[in-house]
Predict the structure.
Amino acid sequence: MEKITINDIARLTGLSKGTVDRVLHNRGEVSKKSYQKVMDSIKELGYEPNLYASLLARAEQKTIALLLPAHQPGTYWELAAKGEAKAQAAIKPLSLTTRQFNYNQYSADSFREACTRVLESNPAGVVMAPMFQYETQVFAQELQARGIPYSLIDTKLETPGYLSFYGIPAYKSGYLCAAMLIGEGPVKEVLVVRIMRDKGRQSDPTVLRRSGFMDYMLEHNPGCTIRSLFIDPEDPAATDDALDAFFTEFPGVRHIAMLNSRIHLIVPFLERHPADIRVVGFDNLDANLDALKRGTITALIAQRPEEQVHQAIQSLANRIVFQRFPEKTDNYQHMDILIRFNAEDY
Amino acid sequence: MEKITINDIARLTGLSKGTVDRVLHNRGEVSKKSYQKVMDSIKELGYEPNLYASLLARAEQKTIALLLPAHQPGTYWELAAKGEAKAQAAIKPLSLTTRQFNYNQYSADSFREACTRVLESNPAGVVMAPMFQYETQVFAQELQARGIPYSLIDTKLETPGYLSFYGIPAYKSGYLCAAMLIGEGPVKEVLVVRIMRDKGRQSDPTVLRRSGFMDYMLEHNPGCTIRSLFIDPEDPAATDDALDAFFTEFPGVRHIAMLNSRIHLIVPFLERHPADIRVVGFDNLDANLDALKRGTITALIAQRPEEQVHQAIQSLANRIVFQRFPEKTDNYQHMDILIRFNAEDY
DNA sequence: TGAATTTCCGTGCACGGTAACGGAAATTTT
DNA sequence: AAAATTTCCGTTACCGTGCACGGAAATTCA
């Protein structure tokens, strides 16, 4: 019942606590025989180290690095960055901090460069939202070689030995998006708006979302024409023109979806040309939520990115401080459906 | 930059750490002059106690009491009870545990009795899901008198000095429920199924939900007939008969809602008499989720009760260990909309 | 004024682990 | 076989607080 301490196993094995400590942290200088004896009685007595005593004696601050795409205010990655603060508060009593590193999500070079900055900071763990398959692999290998645990959020790339993943299922989210878009009745024609810049190099989740979207259409609403329109997020005027041209050509379209967080880009146009259109997009950016509350956007599929970074950081903290591994490696999270009547408390 | 310790302020004030410690925990035996000197230099140096050292030296486990309605497997309060485990893991490093006390949600006597059991256990904090306005007030006053902080979940009753509240907005949840039930088109006739036992003494959230439901109807779907049907949760056969009788009398009804977690009770009937009926209910009980995935239930409004207890416990832990108060007292949480396409990862 | 209290405060050990230091024992080298 | 290493281990001084104990100083009592 009473707590087993390092002294108890020292006494039991006839060794000193110095030796016991050495085996606990395997920092060598212990004979195989002693090592075995200590390990045995640790198991026998069910010894668990006292966290406070340990932290007090070390008194050293470890840090967890956060590797995220750089973000402008009002964009998706800003939401994730906000999760850092909450997580920080939670892990502070564990003598841990976080530090954020950013990269340009459209440049592999910048990602590589950020990776070396992360390594230079000598982190105790890394949380990353990866964008580049190959570069991420290389980085993951380096982390593994150095024995630095890491977790993934948002995008699950196939990298060796990640501790955990947190994100929504990309394929299913596209499927859900289609379901929300179609609503009850069958639909003849829908528009999927896309981002120009993504045309060349599509991110992994975007591709999967599209395929989920398409599959829903095939299964539940076949014979529907799916039209695409590419817009430039940097150029609102051109976006307006593009939409104008589109609706001149296809005036019957009453269903619009976007498979990323930028749905707010078409809101100004829609509000200048009111019509009874179902509009579905992703993520709880302020601009999206506002349009949702006004009724311009019908539904949003949201994923609590703050929660994702929080959880990822927490799992690393458990690993680093307690040597505890998460129960599940892949944690697919709930996709929140937001409509105007439940957006307020989000 | 380097940490200020108790010794630093001892040195600065020319007193000993023993004295400093006495003022820190105001356990008396200190002259006013010394007290003032210590307080001043604490402020001056910005001293913050070292949590580990403190916990290590005390080595005493405080406990947070959880006061919840007793629960059968597969009922709502079981979900909340599950949150206890998660919270427990989170606060363990803070030398805190939780302990659950249950009461019969239909008996004020049993609630009172549970309250005295809680007090006898001498908890450092209390989380409760209250059902009885008056008894809860009395209990809250007692807690306040003893200086025991407490938080509320689920139902926000007006009690003095609670630390925090976590739950969904009851009125709005009824409103949302109606919105999900009606869907796109106007509806002529809906059925709201209710629980017999609740007829006499309706809980606070149920009343508010009903009023939100009604208001939505008035505002968005006026002229709709709202029919009620009472069923007995203990008697499936009677439930079936009642539904049978109802649909014989009103065969046109194609919309059913229930404003509590028991929607699964009518699922067997619905599956024996297939028809294209929209069915909306509350909470992610396994039975509800299963019916949702099968398509019998159209939508569920869920509220993550585990999260609510987790958060409430966390806020108490911060209060107890760090003397930190939550930013917001009333934390209304997001109402999750579950449909068959996003139920899987919930 | 001396004795008896009371008030106030310093000392020192305990909490459980960490890691530097130095030395004995075992092993290798010359 | 003595010297030089290497391997292995015990000792010890912390880390920052909590708290019991005892004693000096101030106050009250006789």
